[in-house]
Amino acid sequence: MSNRVAIITAAGKGMGAACARELSQQGYQVALMSRSESSLELAQELGGLGVQGSVTEKDDLKKLVNATLGKFGRIDAVVNNTGHPAKGKLLELGEEDWHQGLNLVVLNVAKMAQLVTPVMQKQGGGAFVNISTFAAYEPSPSFPISSVLRAALGSYAKLYADQYAKDNIRMNNLLPGFIDSYPDQRRSVIPYP
Q1: Would strands 49-52 and 5-9 be described as parallel, antiparallel, or unpaired?
Q2: Cα dihedral sign for 189, 12, 72, 70?
Q3: What fold is seen in the domain 5-189?
Q4: Which pLDDT does position 191 carry in this prediction?
Q5: Record keywords: Oxidoreductase included (predicted)?
Q6: I need a labelling partner for 158 at 20 to 30 A (CA). Which of 20, 79, 168, 184 fits?
Q7: Helix (H/G/I), strand (E/B), else coil: 130
């Protein structure tokens, strides 16, 4: 797998950084992006490519894809990881919160698929993995925007996977629960002992 290349977004810390480290350890060349400089530092550590940008900006995603192709010549895998949309009570969240959440959770995946699918088709296949949440199918009142939009992401992934399976391109969502890096001040919402 030493010639394989993976893009990981929101790769500066947490699950994104863990995915980058694991893929690098598995022999992938990695191209990382995050809003902070932390993905640049991690990319340097892993011998990969780092780009500073936001998953909500198509120009930043284009920059990441073009830089990846320029450096490595291919893209075999994309890990679409993001931060969290706004939290609050269901009816107290504003319209702008919902629009920002849509851009962060669903549209970033659609934009990345538009940019990378033609590359994967020419290469004969590839894989997308979208980091989602358990709340996609078990909605949490603590995370209403995330719950609703990650359910929509499940529909998008199913539609995409059905359409591009013929091209040997997969798309799957991972639905993790709470992880050790979850901030202490928010642990009280975890419904487990």
Answers
A1: unpaired
A2: positive
A3: Rossmann fold (3.40.50)
A4: 54
A5: yes
A6: 20
A7: strand
